[in-house]
Structure formats: C-alpha cells, structure tokens
Write a structure and sequence with these properties.
The complex is a heterotrimer of chains A (about 180), B (about 250) and C (about 250).
Chain A (H helix, E strand, L loop, with lengths): L2 H9 L3 H20 L4 H18 L9 H20 L21 H16 L7 H11 L4 H8 L3 H23 L4
Chain B lengths: L13 H13 L5 H10 L2 H8 L5 H22 L3 H16 L9 H4 L6 H30 L7 H9 L2 H18 L2 H23 L4 H4 L4 H18 L9
Helix pairs in contact in B: 2-3, 4-5, 4-7, 5-7, 5-9, 5-10, 7-8, 9-10, 9-12
Chain C lengths: L2 E10 L2 E11 L2 E6 L6 H8 L7 E6 L7 H9 L1 E4 L11 H11 L7 H11 L15 H13 L5 E5 L7 H14 L4 E6 L2 H7 L2 E6 L2 E6 L1 H6 L10 H14 L1
Parallel strand pairs in C: 3-7, 3-8, 5-6, 6-7
Antiparallel strand pairs in C: 1-2, 1-4, 8-9
Helix pairs in contact in C: 3-4, 3-5, 4-5
Chain lengths: ~180, ~250, ~250
C-alpha cells in the first residue's frame, strides 16, 4: 500500500492506516527534528504532528509527496513550540535571503530552515560535484568569486554559472521540503 | 520527497508518542447529554453506564412514548382515563429492565467494579421513573386540555390524570423488588404488569369502574406503603453479601 | 502480601464449592490448576469481591473487602477476567476497555493513554475501533485481558485467559504475564498445565474445593517422576498429585 493510499484512508477515518503511517514516517521525522530540537520536544512535536495529520488528512492532494506534507506539518508544529519557548532560545544560521523563505528573520523558522537546508544541499549532488563544491566554497566558506575560480581552476564565469545553477537546485529542493499544501 | 527510512534516534521514545496519539484518536467523545449527566452525578463512569450500555432501556423508552401517545389519543376518543391506566404498567416494565442480570452480558465483571451495580441500578431506575413521569404527565395534560367528557368536575379530572403517579410508584417498586430478588429483569417486568392488571380488574369487579384504582383516594396510602416496602426489599436484595445463590 | 486467605469456604445450597482454602501470596505470577468443578472459578470470584465467602478470612491488598469503603478501594486496584465474559456487540474495542476503566474510577485524564496502552499490549492496536461483534473468540479474550489490565492493577485475576488463543498468542501472553508479575500479584486459573509451567513462580492445585498442592512448578514436576501419566513432566506431576489426593 503506498503512502497516498494510506493518507486517503486516514482521511476516511481509518485509524489503522494512521498507525501504519506512523510506523513508516515517525522514525525519519524524529531524526530530522532531533537535529534541531531536544528529545523531549521531538516527542511532543511528533505527537502534535500526527494528530494534525489525523485531523487534516482531507486536505492532502495525492502527488506522491506524502513525506513532504508530513514534514511541512512537523516543521509548523516545531516552529509553534519554539515560539512558545521564547525568541532567544535558538541561534539560527543566517542564510542567503532568497533561500531562507518568507519568514527569514524568525529564528525559529531559521533553525528549521537549517535542517531543511542540510537535506537540500544533498540534492546538489555527491560531495565533490561541481555545484556542491561551488556552494561549499562560496556560501559556506564565504569566499569571493575570484578566489573560488582560482581554487577550482576554472574561469570566474564558470563559477558564476555553477553558483546560479546551485541556487536554482536548492530553491527547488527547499520548495519541495516545505511540501504539500499550506 | 520521502526521506530515508532510518531508525529513530535512541533518546526519542516513539512508542510513547504513538500511545499519546492513539489515546486521543481512539477515545470516545461523549455527547452533551452524557457530559451533563457526568457532571450532575460527579462520575463520568456512572453517566456512561446510565446512557450507553445495552439494557433494554432505549427500546422501552421508545415504547413508552408510543404507548402513552396512543393512550392519550384513546382517552380523548373514549373518555376512559387510559393514560392513567397504562402508565404504571409501562413504567413498571421499564424499571425492571433497568436491572442487570439477564440483560447485561458482562454481568459478572460489572459486579467487580468500583462503581457498584447497585449504584448503576439506582441511577437507571430513577432516570426511567423520571422520564416516564414526564411522559405520563405530558400525555395526561394533552388529554385533559382537550377535555374529558362534558360534565366531569375539574377536580375529579385532576385526580384521575395525576393521581396515577402514586399507583405507578407502587407498581414500579414492586417490579424492581421482584427483579432484584429473582435476579431477572423479565420476571420483574412480568410481575409488575401482572400486578397492575390484577389491581385494575379487581377494581372493575369491585366498583364496576375501570378507573377505580386511580380515582379512589382511599387507596393512596396503601399504595405508598406497598411501594416503600418494595423499595426496602430491592435494597436488601442488592446488598453485599448477597445470600446463598450462585 | 497482597492476598491473605485463611480457611475460606463457599457453599451454594448443599454444594460446598470451596471447602477450606488457605493461601498467601505477594507480587508474582501464581498459577491455580485443577480439573473442572474443582472450585477455582468460585475462589477467583471471591477474590474479585463478586460473591462473599460463606466463612473464613479474606484480606486483599491489606484490606477487608467486607466493608463498603475498603471494597471500593480494592476494586479500584483490581483487574478481573471472568471465565465467560460477555461483550457489548455495538461497542468498539477501545470503547469497551474505556468503559471499564471509567467504572474502576480511574482519573479521567489518565484514561485515554491507559486504554491505548492496554489495547497495544494485547496486540489489538490495528483493530482498536473495530466493533466487538466483528472479532473472533481469541480476539475477544484479548479484549477481556485488556480491560483487566487497563488500570495497572495491583491484583490481577484471570480465569482461563488463554481460551481461544493460538500457540503464538499464548507465548506472547506468557511474556505479558511475566511483565505484569513484576509489580502485581497475578492469579491465573487454568486447566492448561503448560501455561502454568512457563510463566508462574508458584502453583496451587485444587481438587474438590481444597488445595492439594502448593509449591513451585519444579516441585510439582518432581512429584510426577514415577507415578504420573501425561506427555509433559509437569502434566505427570499434576496427575500424580490428583491421584494421590483422591485415593
């Protein structure tokens, strides 16, 4: 039974389907959340996530993006929890503005965006691929274009176009990460 | 995007999380009547026992409505106080069916509960009695408002329409006593209905009038005495220890 | 000591179902063996405060269940699975367990999680909202076990709990028993000898209203080395003791 069928059954009120959904998706959601939150908070957020999924399954449009939909619910619940805790709790990474999403200044969102980002960067390709290297040097290590061109042994124009491609890929990956319907 | 199917982190107890989710998903959401009853009785378990477990209560309530409605209609057309005559019989049967064994498939288990079977019986019996009283009063009021045969004094009409409450109490108590002694709801119901039939018929024989049992005010005190005695019998029969039958 | 019984008897008319039983037990799993009609069910019903004893002394969880107040306190901490448990066909599994949790006067806030826990422990999590009328006999028995354990009882009384369970489910059930026996007194009445051997730390054998053996399963096995009949060592002990008691 694939994920879309499961969610359809959950929407129809089948609690055994919710149980199966939990069994499949709770583990990786826990890993993702644990990167950002302490264990006790992960448990609370998981609980709220699956209760929200139980109530809101009717709004899911089957596109094969069930994981993204669940992650979207989870990150909203996590953000709620972090906001309740207080603004000073989490030091977020600063991301380039066009990648951080609409709520960029919010540290809660930023912390979650960091978790998203780590996964999205993997979408650029294996470590050592051209886009990944450019990303690593230009954005993670904050070097200017000329220096990166020298390190990689390619003309600056190539660096710029690879950077442009990397940002495009990342934006697409992050959009999928936010997932489902808002 | 579905992520890799890793195992969960060691310090996150997903079993506990599922139990919390399942607890909310599986719980029964009581309706407003059950919630109100729970607050009144200060016990959600007692409210649930009153309103949800299978006893023949619901079918009997529906039957009571039907019977008393028919009685009101018949009273209007025939002038006999049929509502007054029917109400006690209907109520007695309903009261008897509020008792457990024979009706409750999980009877043995119910007898080991902190909320005791006697409490449940008491609450059910009172609820049945109250509902039947209200239904009977409504049916009588309808019949009285539309009018008994011309020439009846309004005082006599009031006695007939409302005087059946006392015989009803007596007959209900009798049915309950028999049900608890015999540990069978059906026996109690049969006993109550039969007793009432005997009373009505002997009234007819004695005074030529079917309505005698409900109009003869001399009988009220004996009715109440019998009723009180039967209540004592029912309390005795439901006490713990319960005697020597298995 | 959770259970202290001294010279307990129970009479029905002229029939002496329990004819002077004495035993004491604390936490752990206690097996009650015996043929049909030995008085096991009657003894369990007295321990569940469903019927009073005809004579003798009964103390449960340190209280005398003769009085209304102590009896209510005992019942809040009690779990009981009768031999023939009827069910309400229109209820779901979770509703049935929840109903009895409320009747045991569990604190309302704790009920949903306790019900979910009990249902999952008896492996009915995939059927929590199925109507009872759709379940098989073995599943219904597991529902009965779930309502008995929902309030984490200190005294758990199970009368023929494995009736209708297949062998794999019986193995899971014995694991559940061992787990429950860590903190509570669990009394299991059964005529299936192998259920007892695997899970119980103490065994009593009843015949015709009396206890004819009380000890460990190993001691019962030892009684059967030369004289008993049966396929398994424990069964041979069982038949040997019964034969000796009746001769």
């Amino acid at each position: 039974m694939d994920d879309d069928d499961l969610v359809a059954r959950v929407a129809a009120g089948d609690d055994a389907a919710l149980r199966d959904l939990f069994g499949r998706h709770a583990p990786w959601l826990a890993v993702r959340l644990r990167a950002v939150l302490p264990a006790a908070d992960v448990e609370d957020v998981q609980q709220e996530t699956f209760l929200a999924a139980w109530r809101g399954a009717g709004g899911y449009r089957p596109q094969g993006a069930c994981g993204g939909w669940l992650w979207g619910i989870a990150r909203r619940q996590a953000a709620l929890l972090l906001r309740r805790r207080g603004p000073a709790e989490h030091a977020g990474t600063t991301l380039p503005a066009d990648l951080a999403g609409r709520d960029a200044p919010d540290p809660a969102e930023t912390a979650l965006a960091r978790a998203d980002l780590e996964v999205a960067v993997a979408a650029l390709g294996p470590a050592g691929s051209p886009e990944r290297e450019v990303w690593r040097l230009m954005y993670e290590q904050d070097r200017p274009v000329a220096e990166v061109a020298g390190l990689l042994g390619v003309p600056p124009g190539t660096v710029k176009s690879r950077a442009h491609r990397a940002r495009r890929l990342l934006r697409a990956a992050l959009r999928v990460a936010e997932g489902g319907t808002r | 995007m579905s992520g890799p199917r890793n195992d969960a982190p060691d310090d996150v107890d997903l079993g506990r999380v599922w139990i919390s989710v399942a607890g909310q998903v599986w719980r029964r959401q009581p309706g407003w009547l059950e919630r109100t009853a729970g607050r009144l009785l200060r016990s959600p378990g007692l409210a649930r026992a009153l309103l949800t477990t299978p006893s023949l209560l619901l079918p009997w309530l529906l039957a009571s409505v039907a019977v008393l409605a028919a009685g009101a209609a018949a009273t209007l057309s025939s002038g006999q106080p049929l509502v007054a005559l029917l109400a006690p019989a209907v109520a007695a049967a309903a009261i008897a069916y509020s008792y457990g064994p024979g009706i409750d498939p999980a009877w043995d288990l119910s007898c080991s509960m902190a909320i005791s079977d006697r409490m449940v019986l008491l609450v059910r019996a009172l609820a049945v009695f109250a509902v039947n009283t209200v239904l009977g009063l409504a049916a009588s009021a309808v019949a009285a408002a539309v009018g008994l045969p011309a020439g009846s004094a309004s005082g006599a009409a009031a006695v007939v329409t409302f005087g059946w409450l006392i015989p009803m109490t007596a007959v209900c108590a009798f049915a309950l006593a028999v049900a608890t002694m015999a540990r069978s709801a059906s026996v109690g119901a049969a006993a109550g209905v039969t007793a009432w039939l005997i009373i009505v018929l002997s009234g007819r024989v004695a005074s030529g009038n079917f309505a005698a049992p409900v109009t003869d005010t001399v009988l009220f005190l004996p009715y109440l005495a019998v009723g009180a005695g039967c209540v004592v019998v029912a309390l005795y029969a439901t006490r713990i220890p319960r005697g020597t039958f298995s | 000591m959770n259970v202290e019984i001294t010279d307990l008897t129970r009479r029905f008319g002229r029939n002496l179902a329990v004819a002077g039983v004495s035993l004491q037990t604390g936490p752990g799993v206690f097996g009650l063996l015996g043929p049909n009609g030995a008085g096991k069910t009657t003894l369990l019903r007295m321990m569940a405060t469903v019927i009073p004893p005809s004579s003798g002394r009964l103390r449960l969880l340190g209280r005398d269940p003769g009085g209304y107040g102590p009896r209510r306190e005992v019942r809040r901490r009690l779990g009981y699975l009768p031999q023939n448990l009827g069910y309400y066909p229109g209820f779901t599994v979770a509703e049935f367990v929840e109903y009895f949790a409320l009747l045991k006067e569990m604190p309302t806030a704790r009920v949903p999680a306790a019900v979910a826990n009990a249902v999952e422990r008896v492996d009915l999590g995939g059927r929590a909202r199925a109507k009872l009328r759709t379940l098989s006999g073995g599943m219904l028995r597991r529902v009965g076990i779930a309502q008995a354990i929902v309030n984490e009882p200190e005294l758990l009384l199970l009368d023929e709990p494995t009736a209708g369970l297949d062998p794999e489910q019986r193995v899971q059930f014995r694991a559940l028993l061992r787990d429950l026996g860590q903190r509570a007194t669990v009394v299991v009445s059964t005529h299936l000898v192998e259920d007892v051997g695997a899970a119980c730390s103490q065994v009593a054998l009843m015949d015709q209203g009396k206890i004819v053996f009380h000890g460990t399963p190993a001691e019962l096995t030892a009684r059967g080395t030369e004289h008993g009949t049966g396929d398994a060592p424990l069964e041979r002990g069982y038949t040997a003791v019964l034969a000796a008691a009746r001769s």
